[in-house]
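Can anyone check this?
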Amino acid sequence: MRTFVIGDIHGGLLALEQVLKRAEVTTQDTLIFLGDYVDGWSQSAEVIDFLIEFKKTQNCIFIRGNHDQLALDWLENRHEDLDEEMWYKHGGKATVEGYSKISPERKKEHIAFFESLKDYYLDDENRLFVHAGFTNLNGVVWEYFPKLFYWDRTLWESALALDPNLKPDDLYYPKRFTVYKEIYIGHTPVTRIGETVPINKACVWNVDTGAAFKGPLTIMNVDTKEFWQSEPLNELYSNEKGRN
């Protein structure tokens, strides 16, 4: 049995199907999805349909992304935390257009899926899987602001800025990077630093390889670090803009 982690999908069902095939995923494998299933390409609703069916035969763990929470707020007509204009600009428009074509019954199933998402997952080897990050120096259990599990960017920014010569027992080594054996995140695409493959800094692995934009979707074996990628999403959806 293998354990895979999958980066941000952003409505790219074609890419998801590609990476599952390329990694030769079987029903014996465990898949950990890091969130942001929607907003970007045109198949957000279809991605959720696929995942709902997929988990019936596959051991899956679904983490909540910020775009998933935004979509849920919209579906449930909660607007206190939803800036619709900003959301539309960052992929929400494609989600709204996609959901205009599905039945109320399917919408209810999707709402139940979004509500079932986990803030994070911690495995038996002390490896943390979370969409964005956390801020409490003692770890996720002590986080004061749960929304940061799917909004934080300071964890990744700190990992990028960390002096590689610092050791975990050094006085100035960030305590957040000593709590877990490894941390797997998405949320902030590595394309921002000119990369399109998973990047490791300190104990943090960023698996968001820019599928919302012009990068590929990535699936990675968390034990071996071998990874497989789809074609760039702007090529799979050549008639769409995505979030570009």
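Reply from J.R.: I decoded it. Strands lie at 3-6, 30-33, 59-62, 120-122, 127-130, 182-185, 199-201, 204-206, 218-221, 227-229.
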